[in-house]
Amino acid sequence: MRGLREKAFVVAGGATGIGAGTAERLAAEGALVTVGDINLAGAEATVERIAKDGGRAIAVEFDLADDDSVRRMVDRTIAEFGAVHGLHNVGADLSPANLGRDKTLLETDLEVWQRTLDVNLLGYVRTCRAVLPHLLEQGGGAIVNTSSGTSLGGDASRVAYGASKAAVNQLTRHIAINWGKDGIRSNGVMPGLVMGETVQKQNDLELQRMFVSAARTTRLGRPDDLAGVVAFLLSDEAEWINGQMWFIGGGAHLRQ
């Protein structure tokens, strides 16, 4: 894809799943990749796979809920690669201690709301605020935020998670509206159920059957299904796409 080779990208949440798949795809396209994650061992494993295939990447431990660690991740990227040309946000708190307690409005404690919004929404605010000035200074760049298909149709449970992802959609459009004329492209992907490591560990067979039943395909998603789309949106091939949220979920939602 045009515009990826020798360009530096931050994957914020690249230890497993969609983030790891995207980091590996970007590196395969010749990009220089910072694999950031709170799970440093997982980020290092992603980097090892990239290096084994001849790519170049670094692992950086960071926390979406911590301002300083976000800034350090961006600074490390620039120190290592000389610049930062784009950002893929894909991290979220999917832990049983948080998402496992995210139910209906009347059942979900404010503590869960606060943690979910601090990581899933404000975490993306932090990374975008850290990267955006550098993109503007160099005349442009690309951001791809990961939202969720839940932000489209709602959900009977996981109210805080769904609200955080709907807000990510608005954040993504806000960036495009304000800085598109300055060369910034800001788009997002809304995955259906993707069988990354976290979802596999949850092993929620009822949820899996529900997603397959709703989709216009015979299988659930794989990290590679999103990795190719994100790499495209970060590349110069997508230079006329801005402010868009793409649902990638086997046709479970049919929309313009």
From TrEMBL:
Class of the enzyme per the UniProt entry, highest EC level: oxidoreductase
GO molecular function: oxidoreductase activity
Record keyword Metal-binding present: no
EC number annotated for this UniProt entry: 1.-.-.-
Pfam families: adh_short_C2
InterPro entries: NAD(P)-bd_dom_sf, Sc_DH/Rdtase_CS, SDR_fam
Gene3D superfamilies in alphabetical order: NAD(P)-binding Rossmann-like Domain
SUPFAM superfamilies (UniProt xref): NAD(P)-binding Rossmann-fold domains
Sorted UniProt keywords: Oxidoreductase
Family membership noted in the UniProt record: Belongs to the short-chain dehydrogenases/reductases (SDR) family.
Protein name per Swiss-Prot or TrEMBL: Putative oxidoreductase
The species this protein was found in: Nocardia macrotermitis
Taxon lineage: Bacteria, Bacillati, Actinomycetota, Actinomycetes, Mycobacteriales
